[in-house]
Structure formats: structure tokens, C-alpha cells
Prior knowledge:
Elements: E1 8-16, E2 22-31, E3 36-40, H1 47-54, E4 62-67, E5 70-71, H2 77-87, E6 88-92, H3 103-113, H4 118-131, H5 147-159, E7 165-169, H6 177-194, E8 197-201, H7 205-208, E9 213-218, E10 221-223
Parallel strand pairs: 3-8, 3-9, 6-7, 7-8
Antiparallel strand pairs: 1-2, 1-4, 4-5, 9-10
Amino acid sequence: MTVSHPALAITGLAKTVPGGRRLFADLDLVVGAGEMVAITGESGAGKSTLLNLIAGLDDADAGEIRLAGEKVGDLDEDARAALRLRRIGFVFQAFHVLPHLSLVQNVALPLVLARQEAGGSGRRASTLLDRVGLGGRDDDYPSMLSGGELQRVAIARALVAGPALILADEPTGNLDPETADRVMTLLASEVRGAGAAALIVTHSERAAAAADRVARLGAVGLSG
């Protein structure tokens, strides 16, 4: 019998920071395939920390995180790195697009790191660039793009390996409102079309409105 797991399942998560300040406790969250959830909250509430915990870049004080059925806390550093490579796509506020690589090379990078065949990686990356509205620009460089276009490259890179989960930290923070709306609509469409799950950390009510649901992070966990 095949057992179906949610893309992301968090139970009883707790985290404090140096000095003893508690960010959150008893945090529960389930995100299904094809669902986009926005996480809001005050600055310092622990939104970015939550993404780091999910990605296995930090350890919780208590609780459990399961990504595509795998318990992140049980994995060693090498296994966590492999899980990130296979299962997680990242979209960052600062884009983190490499200036010395062409657009298609930037998008293909997760596949190259996973040691996939170069020709297939390039074709897959080119297809993703086309899907995010940058078709025909494979050989352009980041310096030739606007902020909104760079964020579209970041979305294509996040999706290229077919991850189970997209983690996006303030993906519209550097964009004007009109561009931000287009980027969030694109991200939502691509996530749902790919059957991925997405967790979006944002201060923007406009960005959060593109999600299927919104949860607010506070010291007692998530509400909403």
C-alpha cells in the first residue's frame, strides 16, 4: 500500500535564541502539495528562523519537521544537504543570482550540483526560463535584467529540480508593488502547476494575498 505524506508537516516546534528569548513554541503546520502558505509576523518573530529550521540549517529545541515524509531532525549534515538539493527550492529577497553565469546556467545550477547530465540540465533550465517569461534570453547575464526579471530567474531556479517544497524569504521585498504582484502571481501559478508546496515569509499584505492561506507567527506559534 502506498502511503501519502504531506509535502511539509511540523508538530510541536519550539525555538529560543541566545539570551533565552523564545521565538515560538508548540508550532504546528501542514502544507500540502500544490498549496502556498504565507507566513507573516512582526520583525524578529522568527520567520526566517522557521525557514532555516525547515531546511535543516538550524536545530529546533523541540518538535518535529517532516519533509516529504523524512524527519529532518534525524538526518546528519550530509543527509540534510542532500535533502535540500533534492527536495527544496529557495527564493530569496536578494535573488542570489550569480553574476558571472548566464541565465540558463544560473537556473540549471541545482541540476549541475546534483550531477545531472549537462545537456538535459540546460534544456530543462531553458524550458523554465520560457515558462517565467524569459524565453530566448538563455545567454543573457544578470546585469542585463531588472529586479523583477532577476526574481523570475530565481523562481525558475527554485523550480528546476522539481522540489517538493519551495521556501521563499521576502521574495518581493526589493520590488515595486506592480512587479511584486506579477512575481507573486507567477510564483503561485508555477507552484500549483508543478504540484509543489510553498512557504512564503513576507511582511507584505499584497504578497500574502496571493497565497492559499495566511498564518501569523508569534510566541505561541502560528495563528490564522
